[in-house]
Amino acid sequence: MKESKKVALITGITGQDGSYLSELLLKKDYTVHGIVRRTSNLLRSRIEHLRRDEKLYGRRLFLHYGDLSDSTTLRRIISEVSPTEMYHLAGQSHVGLSFEIPESTCEETGMATLRLLEIVRAQPSPVKFYHASSAEIFGDASASPQTENTPLRPTSPYGCAKAFATQLARVYRQSYGLFVCNGILYNHESPRRGENFVTRKIARGAARIARNLDDELVLGNLESRRDWGRAQDYVQAMWLMLQHQTADDYVVATGETHSVREFVDAAFAVVGLPWEKYVKHDSLFNRPTEPVRLVGCSEKIGKTLGWKPAGNFAQLVREMVEAELAAIDSRQ
Ligand code: NAP
Ligand code: GDD
Q1: Which of 73, 84, 149, 228 is the most exposed place for a label (fewest CB within 10 A)?
Q2: Pocket around ligand 1: residues whose beta carbon is below 6 Å from it?
Q3: pLDDT on residue 40
């Protein structure tokens, strides 16, 4: 089979975003390489369907062992693959956990991004580089909604590490002329979201209660508000950024916020149960500090790249709860 000219390398290919991005790029006829770390369990559930596809795996989809802490291996993979586009998505992505494991979070999120930028800078052919930045860089936001020019005021170790990496990406673009884009993404969710993020936890909890597998759902702060979109729409934004003639930073958001309580309410409405009867609070899930007023203005990416989200909040909640119900029913 003839190799396509567009070659993408994805760090974090096994994650929520990595899996949707791989599907998108494979549909667009890219050759896709992903970096995976050694785990005790070989099953990589989010990309297993792609790995099992004989038309893809070993032909247009390749996996390479590597870890963000291992610069010699990262350098070798990048030299061998010689990507035209690189999507750097890997890292410890749980904000609450970053208070418990701050050092490894900052190492993986901050220093590893620097490591990759240095390797990319030394490549003989130009590599377009996407960095997975986050709304968490705005933290105690000084303006609302936030734009690409809002000051960085992170409120968590994770947010500090992303702010460091975001600013470095800007420095490498300005100082060395590298094609580096920061996608400043607000929360985006899907049935493939990790189980310890609040939306998936709620969707799973509501479905399990509806099927009599659980009798309560224990959460932290119900009043937190987030700007929640669909992961499938957000990986499209990542791709669009690297197709533009110039590199830049873009906020990707819906511009709408909802509270955790509203998410709970909508999820339990899908299964027709009164949430007040089942949802309990445990301060274990509260964070030492929370960002405030996080809501994004995605006017720039809308006007420059023509991006707009396809789905809305109600559809997202329904899609996530129905996926949980279907998964339970298929096992029974
Ligand atoms: P995710 O589901 O948690 O996936 C993280 C990926 O990083 C996984 O593939 C994981 O591998 C890999 N990884 C973690 N540590 C690694 C290491 N030391 N070496 C190699 N690989 C490592 O995250 P996501 O939701 O897809 O998010 C993708 C990126 O966007 C993350 O950087 C996240 O911080 C950022 N982001 C996400 C959101 C959001 O709402 N989802 C919003 C803004 C920014 P394993 O499968 O082996 O664990
Ligand atoms: N995880 C979790 N578990 N969060 C809870 C719970 C719970 O039981 N109860 C309430 N929450 C609240 C959190 O305190 C937070 O205010 C909100 O729900 C969302 O939490 P998460 O789903 O863990 O996401 P996040 O906003 O902290 O971080 C996500 O979005 C960032 C972009 O804004 C992650 O995807 C980050 O990687 C990403 O950068």
Answers
A1: 149
A2: 12, 14-18, 37, 39, 67-68, 89-93, 108, 132, 134, 185, 187-188, 194
A3: 86
- Mention the CATH class of domain 198-224+257-294+311-331: alpha beta
Identical topology for domains 7-189+228-256 and 198-224+257-294+311-331: no
Q: Where are the beta strands (DSSP E) in the chain?
A: 7-11, 31-36, 61-65, 85-88, 128-134, 180-185, 188-189, 217-219, 225-226, 229-230, 250-252, 258-259, 279-281
Q: What percent of the chain has pLDDT over 70?
A: 99
Domain boundaries 7-189+228-256, corresponding CATH code: 3.40.50.720
Determine whether 158 is an active site residue.
yes
- Nearest ligand, CA 225: 2
Please compute the mean of the pLDDT values over residues 283-305 and round it to a whole number.
96
pLDDT for the residue numbered 5:
87
For residue 206, give Cα distances in angstroms to 37, 282, 327: 32, 17, 13
Q: For the chain, what are the domain ranges? A: 7-189+228-256, 198-224+257-294+311-331
Q: Where are the beta strands (DSSP E) in 40-169?
A: 61-65, 85-88, 128-134
